[in-house]
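call fold(seq) -> tokens
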Amino acid sequence: MRDIDYILSFCVNLSRNMIMSGANLERIHTAVNTVCRAYGLSDVSIFLLSTHMSVSAVDSDGNYSSRQISIPSSGIFLDRLRSLNQLSYKIAEITPNPKTLSQMLDRAMNVSDYPDYVVLAGKICAMLCLGVMFGATAWDLIPVAVITALIHFLMSWLERKGLDRMLVNSLTMWSAASVALAFIYSGFNGNFAVIMITVSMLVIPGIPLVNAMRNLLCGSEINGILQMLKVSVETMALALGIYAAFMMFGVESMISPTVSAPTDPVLLIALSFVASIGFGVNFRIPPKDLWLAGLGGALSRVSLIYLPGIIAGRFWFMTLSASAAALYAEFLAIRRKQPSTYFVYPSIIPLIPGDLFYYAITGIYLGAREWVELNGVNCLISLAGLSMGFVLASTVVIHVRRRK
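ret:
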């Protein structure tokens, strides 16, 4: 193989592993271009989707080469993403022998992970905090913890079976809703709506939805449309699971939207801090950086508490809240030379509209058109505001960097 073949093979494998670790597509473009420029490649052409990547280039001797690779469904592993991102800059700095790039990639992939029981504990901790924020009582928190554990093990088991993601989502949410109903029917003094709103936050693809809308707003229309379709179908599968449980057990009297959520700002900020730490564990942020994940969540909560009283319109206060979280992440990314995704994902957890998603689904079941319209529209507005906030923050940071 020629040097250019080794370089481009490395680029497609690096891209594949970065996407599977949670990178957005802008980060992939930056990493691949950085590596290609370091080796003097020209006419670099990158075609990137969330499921496919191809790259072609010409070396200094006029040799042309291209590589492509498919990208399977993935999760979020932010510590691995950090390691891979640092690898791209390290290669640009030292330009090692292209034949050694594959070994360097293997070493960068080898990062430590939390034991499964620690990840589960992080999820349960996050769900309990979110439950309290949604108005859960002590009686509600018991089924929340049980259903969180069920979702954790069930999704892992179903995915190992190689089942389609839509089927996994539907079965998972049907099981979650059925267990919640079992608690209620057994005489457990819990609020079904609060329980389901809370556990839905564990499976709603809020981050992929935000990334899809972000791509649409940033000019990556094809990627944005494909991602939006994929995530929309997966979200519909979640809704189908809840809807199936409703149809099987008939629960009109149990899905009232009447919820008494806490309003104490200190409590809400503290809960958001801990919830984002729990999601930080789930996203595989190393222990030394978990407090930064929590701080980002607390900042988002502060924005949500105070901005609605200053700015009218859900879109605008969500945009500014997301901008605050994104600027916080960009600042840390610059200081620590890490991808902003590493800090953004846990920071936006308090901003994901899980309650609006649940009420839209129950509105469909009950035939309550006003529920569907109000909550569905507000959910879309919230996601659009989140995406716009990220775009504005990224634009500001890029402008500042260019001036420097």
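The chain has a mean pLDDT of 84.
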